[in-house]
Predict the structure.
Amino acid sequence: MLQPELVIRAARGLDEAGVAYMVTGSVASSLQGEPRLTHDVDLVVALDERDLDKVLAAFPAPQFYADSAAALDAIRSHRMFNVIELATGGKIDFWLLTPDAFDRSRFERRLTDDSLGYPLRVSAPEDTILAKLRWARASGGSQKQFSDALHILEVQGGGLDAAYMDLWAASLGVTDLLQKLRAEAEPI
């Protein structure tokens, strides 16, 4: 299954299960900035134990592999679990929505994007940039994360809420990275 099909399959499964989600990571940055290949689909989900069986049923064997015990543990600890599409190795990472203030804010701000032919709930561009900068900092300066954020800034340009980004950049400890991003950006 190609990545766009996997994204849509994941979103449809969550919609049918009644689970709120947000596309984030490289898929979001590809929709908002410069497309790039990735082997995983990152989704933030507001998932509790009652809905787990419905979600896992959307990804049945033998096409998919999911460890239900690992998924249950992830729900209880607000971490991540994944589902793997066995034919291609495509992976869906389900990141549990945490009580973190930034995670809650970006989840509330998610937008609908129809560019793949299905109404996906996607992280707002400002939040995708901030999350990428936070990952860049946490990973010791990942150029891939920084580059993704840079491309979003270049493509989205003046449509971004700069005050919102400044506020959260300070809170997340990435003000220096946001300033560097702005200095390097070349408007498209």
In short: The first helix runs from residue 3 to 17. Residues 3-122 form a domain with the Beta Polymerase; domain 2 fold (CATH 3.30.460.40). The mean pLDDT is 93.
